[in-house]
């Protein structure tokens, strides 16, 4: 009988987290948008955070909640917006759980070798912009 041993996947490092923040901020700067960027590891722990000087203050909270939501549901928050609308699969989820979930585009999970290793969240721009900045960061890390 043959057994397979799971292959270890390197966790998200502080270097990875800093690269994600830099890439997201670079994308936002190119678009002329000031943002906050949050990076969480697979356990939901903060690895990196940066708020641009002129970014709206609430963007720090929204970037963190977007990252947390993307991590917990292993999906971009942009893909979950419709699910919390009336009649949607997760309609009651935001109020049913005592968790900092936020179903607004801008949170993206980070995978390595097909495994979830963390998430990045961006706040401060329009939701579609934030999603683009977060996606650009994840693509730059790959």
Structure description:
There is one protein chain. The protein has a four-stranded antiparallel sheet with strand order 2-1-4-3. It has a single domain, classed as Haem-degrading domain (Beta-Lactamase). The protein has four helices and four strands. With 142 residues, the chain is α+β, with helices and mostly antiparallel strands. The model has no long low-confidence stretch (mean pLDDT 91).
CATH architecture: 2-Layer Sandwich
- State the CATH topology: Beta-Lactamase
Spatially, the strands of the biggest sheet line up as: 2-1-4-3
Shape: globular
User: What's the rounded overall pLDDT mean?
Assistant: 91
Structural class: alpha+beta
SSE layout and pairings?
Elements: H1 14-30, E1 36-41, E2 46-51, H2 58-73, H3 93-96, E3 107-112, E4 115-123, H4 127-141
Antiparallel strand pairs: 1-2, 1-4, 3-4
Write a concise synopsis of the structure shown.
Helix content is 37%, strand content 19%. The chain is of the alpha+beta class and 142 residues long. A four-stranded antiparallel sheet has the order 2-1-4-3.
């Amino acid at each position: 009988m043959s057994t397979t041993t799971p292959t270890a996947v390197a966790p998200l490092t502080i270097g990875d987290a800093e690269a994600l923040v830099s890439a997201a901020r670079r994308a936002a700067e190119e678009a002329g948008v000031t943002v906050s960027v949050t990076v969480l590891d697979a356990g939901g722990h903060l690895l990196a955070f940066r708020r641009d000087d002129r970014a709206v203050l609430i963007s720090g909270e929204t970037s963190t909640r977007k990252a947390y939501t993307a991590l917990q549901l292993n999906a971009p928050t942009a893909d979950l917006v419709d699910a919390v609308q009336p009649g949607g699969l997760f309609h009651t989820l935001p109020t049913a759980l005592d968790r900092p979930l936020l179903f607004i585009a801008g949170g993206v999970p980070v995978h390595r070798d097909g495994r979830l290793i963390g998430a990045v969240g961006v706040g401060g721009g329009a939701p579609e912009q934030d999603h683009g900045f977060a996606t650009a960061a994840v693509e730059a890390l790959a």
